[in-house]
Amino acid sequence: MREALITRKTAETDISASVNLDGSGAYDIQTGVGFFDHMLDQLARHSLIDITLKAVGDLHIDDHHTVEDCGIALGQAIAQALGDKRGIRRYGECHLPMDDAQVRCALDLSARPFLVWNVDFPTAKIGTFDTELVREFFQALATHGGITLHIDQIHGINSHHIAEAAFKAVARALRMAVETDPRKGDAIPSTKGAL
Hints:
Blueprint: E1 3-9, E2 13-20, E3 27-30, H1 34-47, E4 50-57, H2 64-82, E5 91-98, E6 101-108, E7 114-118, E8 125-126, E9 129-130, H3 132-145, E10 148-155, H4 159-178
Parallel strand pairs: 3-4, 7-10
Antiparallel strand pairs: 1-2, 2-4, 5-6, 6-10, 8-9
Helix pairs in contact: 1-4, 2-3
């Protein structure tokens, strides 16, 4: 089973994150940050990765540590669940439209973390959520998941729609990349023989 459980406890956050890469998109997510929970629900649902995530963070300061540390824990869980990556497709991509917004994601489960971020939010907040934290989450996910992650906003005028399109685009690309490739058997998808 391609599953993993990560626990992360610091002076700022206490997080438990589990994933099942061969799930159905089930989720149980409680971070204390409402909009972020909604985005992580979308990540699970559209990637078909089952995600259970519980986070207690220093929200009396702000949401930053909680959001970033959830990205760290989820990235570590995905990397652990992938193991040596035998038989996976490795690459994924998606152009995701949501009303006025369209976001493109391309990713590689390369073990070479890198984030290319071309997204501009027209507002600093979505409700009480700082829009700059969307990038912080994906930076942490890419770094700790070993993902080369490109996220590009094609267009959009509504911050909520742009953020949600980004999460859904990454989810759909992840779904593609973690799938097993029936033509590959148990081969590692790299000419190097390791990822």
